[in-house]
Specification:
The structure is a homodimer of 122-residue chains. Chain A has 122 residues and is mainly alpha-helical. Helix content of chain A is 59%, strand content 5%. Chain A has two domains: 80 residues, Arc Repressor Mutant, subunit A (Orthogonal Bundle); 41 residues. Chain A is elongated. At the A-B interface, α4 and α5 of A face α4 and α5 of B. The structure holds a DNA duplex (30 and 30 nucleotides). Chains A, B: Keywords: DNA-binding, Transcription, Transcription regulation. Chains A, B: It holds the Pfam family GntR.
Chain lengths: 122, 122
DNA sequence: TTTTGTGTATTATGACCATAATACACCTAA
DNA sequence: TTAGGTGTATTATGGTCATAATACACAAAA
């Protein structure tokens, strides 16, 4: 994980949440693995054209959620184990599917119709 | 549309957006049709345990988006025609499917895997 | 040793959302 | 005619998010 250039920010979700989600996605895709070094707060802020304080807020969250470790002023690294990986997988995949199904049922879409729509739009 | 009791508010989206989305959903499901009278701002606020100003903000939005009309102090009514209905249908259905597919591809889910997951969770 | 970059923290400002408390003109039903 | 409900508007307060501008202690590199 040397760069955050692939992260395109939207204006719906808080930026610090989007940063944490991006890192979780990189872990899920195994593009970020145990021990990987992350860029400094200031460097990420520059890459995203965002305030360093916002990036710091993202790091605070990621440390609390357990998949990023920081020691002193040596920078931060990715930390993953089996449990954490499963949690991230469940969050990114399970929540996506569950929320989609809830919304689809909410507007009376049938299972058949949903599969049709996805097939059509894929 | 006499009641907003079925609307369960979440804390992720702005309340006034959720109110407008609820009305759009009622229109899509044809439970709200042309000419239907809506409860007063104050009554909706009471039903949702929300501030009347927040409800007023929702009405302002719904009028701007065209599916609610207000005249004087006679209350507000649903306004739908073919064009508006199609817009709402596209917004609620199309956007849901498109955003889901984008997110699914984002985490490298295959079409096959997605259908499996939906089948499993439905 | 001095400079540079690091993580961390604080204070102030501003936008957006929601609440609270009013206020006012209008219509309608008692 | 009056009392009550309507839509609408305004002002103030507070929380969250993001920015801006600093500040400080620490470690590594020049």
């Amino acid at each position: 994980m040397q760069s955050f250039n692939e992260l395109k920010l939207n204006s719906k979700e808080p930026v610090y949440i989007q940063i944490a989600s991006f890192v979780k996605k990189e872990i899920l895709l195994k593009r970020a693995i145990l021990g990987d070094k992350l860029p400094s707060r200031r460097e990420i802020a520059a890459q995203l054209s965002v305030n360093p304080n916002t990036v710091q807020k993202a790091f605070k969250l990621m440390e609390e959620e357990g998949y990023v470790h920081t020691s002193g002023n040596q920078g931060s690294i990715i930390y993953v184990n089996e449990v954490i990986y499963r949690l991230i997988e469940e969050e990114l995949t399970g929540e996506l599917v569950r929320e989609f199904i809830t919304s689809a049922k909410d507007i009376n879409l049938s299972f058949k119709k949903v599969v049709e729509l996805i097939t059509e739009h894929w």
